[in-house]
TrEMBL record:
Keywords: Heme, Iron, Metal-binding, Transport. It comes from the Bacteria. CDD domains: TrHb2_Mt-trHbO-like_O. Pfam families: Bac_globin. It comes from Rothia terrae. The keyword Heme applies. InterPro entries: GlbO/GLB3-like, Globin-like_sf, Globin/Proto, Hemoglobin_trunc. This is Globin. Belongs to the truncated hemoglobin family. Group II subfamily.
Length: 135
């Protein structure tokens, strides 16, 4: 739990990544997300690789880094440039909403505090809308 009395002082505040429980939490989130991708042939068809494990790992590393955890994503993949990396995939409202639905379900398997849940969900909603590249 974040200590409400400390304030957003970068010298005293733990990262969001640490506050929510670190690696196991991000592992679970991405596992639960990709389980649903695996079970949806139409959505899965968008993924270039048959094996979703590498994609799951990239998402996990990216999210860990984004929320203040290890920076292995950057070390392995360089600058995220997520919008550019998503350009090859046709992401319209339907794909965006399916992605968000899977992520909401995955988040529901975590035991985040209401504050952490709201922060993460707000980010995913904004990011998913930003990733839309087709009408
Ligand atoms: C809006 C709907 C979205 C769809 C349909 C979608 C679909 C995809 C697909 C098909 C890939 C390729 C899989 C791979 O080989 O890595 C991918 C990669 C990735 N996506 Fe998404 N994505 C969406 C939104 C997002 C959002 C909101 C985020 C982050 C918050 C995200 C993060 C990533 C990352 C980190 C990668 C791997 C990039 C790399 O290093 O190559 N995606 N996504």
């Amino acid at each position: 739990m974040a200590d409400i009395s400390i304030g957003p002082n970068p010298h005293t505040q733990k990262s969001f990544y640490e506050q929510v429980g670190g690696a196991p939490v991000f592992e679970k989130l991405c596992r639960e997300f990709y389980k649903q991708v695996e079970a949806d042939p139409e959505f899965k068809a968008m993924y270039p690789e048959e094996d979703l494990a590498p994609a799951e790992r990239r998402l996990r590393m990216f999210l860990e880094q984004y929320w203040g955890g290890p920076t292995s994503y950057q070390a392995e993949r360089g600058h995220p440039r997520l919008r550019m990396r998503h350009n090859p995939f046709a992401i319209g409202p339907k794909e965006r909403d399916t992605w968000l639905k899977f992520m909401r379900n995955a988040m529901n398997t975590l035991e985040l505090s209401p504050m952490h849940d709201a922060m993460m969900w707000d980010y995913f909603e904004r990011a998913a809308h930003a990733m839309q590249n087709r009408a």
